[in-house]
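Researcher: Please translate sequence to structure tokens.
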Amino acid sequence: MSRFRDFKIYTGGANPDLAEDIAGELGVELGALRVDRFADKEVRVQFNQTVRGVDVFLAQSTCRPVNDNLMELLLMIDAAKRASAARVTAIIPYFGYARQDRKDRPRVPISAKLVANLVEKAGADRVLTVHLHADQIQGFFDVPVDHLYSAPVIINCLTKHFANGESVIVSPDAGAANRSRALAKRLDFDLAIIDKRRPEPNMSEVVNIIGDVEGRSAILVDDMIDTGGTLVKAAEALANAGAKSVIAAATHPVFSGPAIERIINSPLEKVYVCDTIPLREEAANCDKIELLSTASLLARAITCIHEEQSIKQLFV
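Model: Translation complete:
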């Protein structure tokens, strides 16, 4: 039984369609929240209904434009706390700056830690997110973080289209091997790993493929697709190794720069992505790209949080 008398869900401008779908899954309407700009593009936020004593959930991916959407989120959190919300949970399906989670070279910030500090300082009591680029980012917060994975959504999709014995899950690099192995085990698929090196950000070179992909459907699984360069090179290597077909499944469709053009001109037959980030028009119109909904997963997590139940069931 929840200790809060009510809960409400609000959304910023980052991904209102996902927020609408989550509200639909929960059988509620989105709360009334005004987010607009002054003439100089300064963000302005106002709740148009009382949130006093309410369990408030604020849905806002920090995707493109990252800084604008992050600022909206921070102001939404601050406004809710100053309006006496009983608890504020920041729902951040895509957590921007997650790739900057450590000092990998001299004189650089740990940007993910700074963003975590900002969200916490703004007044978030809890964070709900999906498939962080680095698991350790959970530890950057001193408030509870419910870190969901898109695996249930992706598994549901793959079991409809691919058969065990004929398909192989492919980890895009050694670092993602444990997560890919867990997914392959749940699907009863074999596992292959791409050995690659990354000379600089958004660039990679495939060195070797560990595992048998010849004559099989090779399914590349990753947390995000950004410029698509790494993904396409991996797909080309798998096709050259004799894969019958090459498919990709990723949580976050960042799709920067030439990503869509690269996918169109690649051996990839299908690219499944989740709705943690809204698709650009070019991506939405691409026949190779199919959108998977995380609304049900997030709605179930919201119910568990509000009713103060364990979210362990969402990992089964």
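Researcher: Any highlights?
Model: The chain is about 30% helix and 30% strand.
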